[in-house]
User: Fold this.
Amino acid sequence: MSFTLALLALRLTIGAIFLYHCRPKFSQKGFMQFIGVAEFAGGMAMILGFLVQFAALGLGIIMLGAIWKKINEWHMPFSAMDKTGWEFDLMILAGCTALMLLGGGSMSIDWMVLGR
Assistant:
């Protein structure tokens, strides 16, 4: 039961983070608007437990892109007291990786429909 609750907590947390962070991207044009839509769809899928492994893969790819941009274009450190580093992005990537490998758990639409 605790494993099921852990997966549920991870899904809800990651879903909420992506739903919150997708909103400003809707007002932008082009690729960033596409990322906003992908983050919204992935966040909703996480919260509902629908196609969790695919959503985790897509959101993980987005996080790899965010980490790459912060390191190579913005030259941000891993962490700093005066600015946000890329440690937060790495934590989200780790959560997405776990959900991609483990699935959404028994409290998900995937489990109810597909049995996994």
About this structure: DSSP finds five helices and no strands in the chain. The chain has a mean pLDDT of 95. Residues 54 and 115 are 16 Å apart (CA to CA). Residues 2-114 form one domain.
